[in-house]
Amino acid sequence: MRVEVRGRQAVWFLDGRQVLMTTLPERSVEGGLALAVGGGTVSFDDVRVTRASSSAFQRVDAERLAVVAHRGASSLAPENTMVAQEVGRRSGAEFIENDVRFSRDGVPVLMHDATLDRTTDGTGKVGTLSAAQIGLLDAGSWFAPAFAGARVPTLAEQLADLRTRGGSLLLETKEADSIEDIATVIDVVRAEKMTGRVLVQSFDPQHLRWVRALAPEIPLGLLRDKLDADPVAVSKELGLAMYIPSGVALEARPGVVGDLHEAGLGVWVWTVDTAERWDRYDRYGVDGIITNRAGELTGWINGRGAGTGVSGTAPGGPVALGP
Ligand code: G3P
Ligand code: CA
What we know:
Layout: E1 2-6, E2 9-14, E3 17-22, E4 66-69, H1 82-90, E5 95-102, E6 108-110, H2 131-134, H3 155-165, E7 168-173, H4 179-191, E8 198-202, H5 205-214, E9 220-224, H6 231-238, E10 242-245, H7 247-251, H8 256-262, E11 266-269, H9 275-284, E12 288-291, H10 294-306, E13 319-320
Helix pairs in contact: 4-5
């Protein structure tokens, strides 16, 4: 038996064949990982522990393309709400992506736009209302009547749900005027004991420098809508774990995926919603795909493995996969 643990993912192999996987490995407070047995007795007389060579965000093997639910499962539920998160989780997404802004009283809340108008029944800039006032808005009716009453979560509420029900967070800082704003976000992540399951991404390199200064233990991803001349150099300068270009941007030079892998980084692409483009970026070798259609991407990955005897992913865990 072989158990491979990378970042938040553990995969079990028996005689070389994958039999179990989980994105919620149970760890002791010191970070130890146990071999637990339910309903039986086993003994292990030859246990060897070796350090994995590649980055926590690089694919373990060809099948382990990470599914990242953009703003939650935002093709099926109102973006950046708890219901979108739950649907994303049940759709097999390992990560939920969000967008973080600040209320008037400085509370980090989930909102993509600078204003409340598109996705709530409120109006005006997010920062004109207190967190309590934002919490009363209807963030679901704009999407469909069935979602009436969905609320705008605070970052703390989102993290508490992920901690207790499973999943990791790709946290996008949409605004930060100073390092104090970033410190507020980090304080929430730490208070929720989620530093081990959060990756911070931003289009603004300054946000990432501030995160690195305050919380070097939190991995970082740089969002790009055009490739840098030298993505590896930029990644090293910023201390990134992940380079995150748009799929279209990556098409200009797919070879940068190999360069970034060689430098120890992972590569995710945004925001990709068709099987034709999932296939294209999968062939480029990306490690994960940010999508509005998490369930369909999970199905596409699993379906691809069906004919090869390779097991697919499942949310939560551990879960036995296939006969
Ligand atoms: O995760 C990347 C993607 O979310 C960046 O664009 O505008 O959807 O935040 P946007
Ligand atoms: Ca985003």
